[in-house]
Queue: 3 jobs
Job 1
Amino acid sequence: MRRCAPSPWSPSREGRDGVLEGADQLEGRRREAAVVAVAKAGHPLVLSPADRLYLDMKYDLAAKPGQAWAGLAPVKRAYSWNPGAYLARVAESSVVGVEAALWTETIATRGDWKLMAFPRVLGLAELGWFPAGALDWTSYRVRLAAHGPRLDAQDIAYYQAPDVPWP
């Protein structure tokens, strides 16, 4: 592990000064102006935008289970973005990581949570580790397809995105 730090979610700070000193600030649903203020105060951000990394968001309109209040979060959308450039008024250096969240209001079974998490969490690992310029959907979708047999062998339910050449 590279570093450990307390990491409060933004709702835990509402009604106070907005930050926990010395902690990474996890940001998922706050208004952009509030996130910008936290970053400008010098606090590192871990981004978890609902429209990309909330794993309970549907892959497509027909998907079940899942929600769509933040929009759809297909596999390509969850992978193909630059966290450092996601918020125009936040310096790239303020963003220290990404995090996926899986809220369980609509997730009833272990199979459901696996289906909602996989394969998006595989892309999250690459998104959080590689520099932005190294991310490439065209090559990633081929690497992702290679995980299909591994997931099958482990009996992990996963969404078979139509734009991935699954074996």
Job 2
Amino acid sequence: MKRGGEITGFEEVTKPYSLRYGAAKAFNDSPDVSNELQNVMLQHASIDTFVRHYSVGIHVDAQAIVRGMPAQKQLMRFACSMSRSIDPRRPYKLEESSAVNRVPRVVALEELKQARE
């Protein structure tokens, strides 16, 4: 789990609860899952359990609703997603961080900064 959290780049290490929460949120947001079915899948006695113990964030285009415009559902889904834009192939730890100090452009900028001080 810890390695999975490092690879995804999340500040918090991934925990089983986080995965359960993500699934619960997806069930709750899906028009295909009724409250009763969600209760069965999550083993809750009632929908009140979800509302009380899970963060029920608002993931709708509230501004569009107030202005009477069509909602931008895809944009809101992207904006509210934690990992949609994370590249799984990116490095997740700096391995050669000191090498950047030898890049000519960085050296020139550092010298300029020192001269101004």
Job 3
Amino acid sequence: MTGRRLLRAAFAAALLFTVGCGVPALPPPGGTASSRQVARETYVRALQMLDEQYVDAVDPITLQSAAQGGVWRRLVGMGAQPQFRLPARGAAVPEAAVPPDTQFTIFEQISGSKLDSATLAHAMVRAAAESVADCHTLHMTARQVQEQRERLSGTSRFGGIGVLVRRAGTDFIVVEVFDGGSAAGAGVRRGDAILRIDGKATQAMTVEQVVQTIRGELGSTVRLTFRRQGTMGEFDLALQRREVVAPIVIHREAAPGIGYLRVFSFPETVVGQVDQALGSLLTRDRWALILDLRDNGGGRVDSVHKVASRFVPQGVLFETVRSAGNTEAFNADGSYRLTGKSLIVLTNAGTSSGGEILASAIQEHGTGSVVGMPTAGCVSTGQLFILPDGSGLEIATARVRSGLRGINLNGLGVRPDVQVDMTVGDLAANADPQLSEALRILASL
């Protein structure tokens, strides 16, 4: 029996189980009966969605074992001593071979009053989603769902300090400081490392956790501890959260005759902004363009397709492949804008998803060269599913292959034609060796 059939059988069998059968008498779980029911339905629905929608086949017992591990880690993080074992990563444990709602009830009883049902459900869903090890498969809180929708629509506004952060080793480095933000006003610089947020160390956080912790209610204050490049000392800044409008496109002249276009993401509104920027940059006296996709985290597939068509005149730009083998090809739509112009694309390890698709299309079709560092290799198309409690589950529903060579970009990414690194020291010195190399190459043409 396949994983998908087995999991559906487990859902059906759940109706025949006596809920709580064999569960030890422990303190009652937190929350009302209705909130516990919603939490249970959230977990069951999440497993069903992973089974039915994820692009690759999943093993249901492995998913439920991972969820068990999520509860274990949550309890340990609270200082509790779980009375059950932590499954090895990717392993299946026999106690997970029960219907999902029965499993949830068991762990409600085991965790007792230590975890309310909503927290328990989120710990289990998050761990199950993370177990497939796919960057486009993750659990989101209701707040993150709203932020995702705003980001994809191009209306993202939030309370922040006006910085772009990237992980470098164990540090979180400020890679951009935007004008008008409280960080710029307080003297935060590119290359500064964020060590603590409101006293909490960042070392064990993800980039998403760092960003979410820095953001907050407009007018509120967040205290950050920084370390400046080239120094061992630390310094604290209390920064007020102001409204931040996430930039999508910026453009300027990089050098005489050479335009510079940076695209941060691909929301719904990006196409018009790119067209406006190209109209300004591609004048008669400009013969080359630098397209900066560094730290571009992607966005809508239709927006990526339209923007890519501005840089590739014809042919298949990329194609998506779903679990059933259904393939959809995305061809250039005839809106090419760079006739007679030279093009160089800048990438780094923060270039992911749609940024990688665009860089790959330009590179494969030979309309431009790629300079910088290898991209993230995080390339799938994801779909957001809303769970019963209002939180969300983004699931990778299709793989993406390059248009000409049919290469699965996920896990591989794009290798630059000319590899040039940019260190934290370069950031701190306000140097950009990748941009400098692009200018050097163009000057030699």
